[in-house]
Design a protein that fits this description.
By secondary structure, the chain is an alpha+beta fold. Helices cover 46% and strands 16% of the residues. A hairpin with a 3-residue loop joins strand 2 and strand 3.
Length: 138
């Protein structure tokens, strides 16, 4: 698909203890002077893939930034069900925070959309003790 990839069960089993690197193409479709060109961090499905495949690390590459989430030595430490609930809590908290910042005219809607998943990923990483990084792609 244009914005998603599917894997078979056999392919997912082969990913265990490996690094999965993928791109987030929406950033490339935005003009270079648009804040959305920075790309975005991990979706809920990205992180669920990391947990369920027991990846060592997952990376998402955008035009300006590469995002990385690394599994601690003790493992991801969360079930899929508990993760979905925690992600929902973090996602809603960030949404409220960003909507208030828009209302207070501190940021624009485009800026909020550009940083939303980064802020969610930071919260999730802190909650579970995962190592999260955002680094310049080039």
């Amino acid at each position: 698909e244009a914005y998603s990839v599917s894997f078979s069960s056999a392919e997912i089993k082969k990913m265990k203890d490996n690094i999965l690197t993928h791109n987030h193409p929406r950033g490339w479709s935005a003009k270079k002077n648009n804040i959305k060109h920075v790309g975005s961090s991990f979706s809920e499905n990205d992180l669920r893939m990391a947990i369920n495949a027991d990846l060592l690390e997952i990376r998402a590459v955008g035009p300006l930034y590469t995002y990385s989430m690394q599994r601690p030595s003790k493992g991801w430490g969360v079930t899929d069900k508990d993760f979905r609930q925690a992600y929902n809590v973090a996602n809603n908290a960030v949404r409220r925070q960003l909507l208030q910042a828009i209302k207070d005219e501190q940021i624009t809607l485009d800026q909020a959309e550009a940083i939303h998943f980064h802020l969610v990923s930071k919260r999730i990483a802190k909650k579970y003790g995962w190592k999260y990084r955002k680094a310049k792609t080039r």
